[in-house]
Structures are given as C-alpha cells and as structure tokens.
Design goal:
The chain is built from two helices and three strands; from the N terminus they run H-E-H-E-E. It has 87 residues and is an alpha+beta fold.
Length: 87
C-alpha cells in the first residue's frame, strides 16, 4: 500500500493501528480493529478502502452483518469508481 498520497492526519491514524496490520500473505490490509473505530476510518478515508464486518453472527458464509460485528477488516479498493461495500 502506497502512503505517499495520504495526508499527515491519515498517516498518523494508520501508524496508530500498525498492530492490526494483516500478514503479507493475506489480502486484507488491517484486521481485528474494534468496531468503535469504523466511523473514524470512514470519515478520514472516505472511499479509499472496503470495510468488512467480522466477529458477529454469520448469516451468510464468511460474512456477518455490520450490526452484529465486533471487529472489522480493511481491504484495498481496486477501483475507486466502484460503489462502496459498506456505507
């Protein structure tokens, strides 16, 4: 992930969450972040990432609802023109 296009505030936020970085062999960039920080990420990184809920009740295989989620994972958005997965 290239961080040269990020603002100083965005870089600071990502540095504070380095312990949640995913291993290099995984597709996600960050995982296991407490759901309380989701609003912060959505506000500061609007349209840059895809957010997937984790840790709640799974109604569909490998996915849970945002209302039930305890944590979330962050994925790189391949094409920024695509609609967001979670609003």
């Amino acid at each position: 992930m290239s961080v040269d296009y990020l603002t100083d505030n965005q870089k600071t936020i990502l540095e504070n969450f380095t312990r949640y970085r995913s291993p290099v062999h995984e597709v996600s960039l960050f995982k296991g972040i407490d759901i309380q920080y989701l609003k912060l990420f959505k506000k500061e990184f609007r349209g840059r990432f895809i957010y997937r809920p984790r840790g709640g009740r799974y109604y569909i295989q490998n996915n849970c609802t945002m209302e039930d989620a305890k944590t979330f994972a962050i994925y790189k958005r391949k094409d920024r023109r695509l609609p967001r997965y979670w609003s």
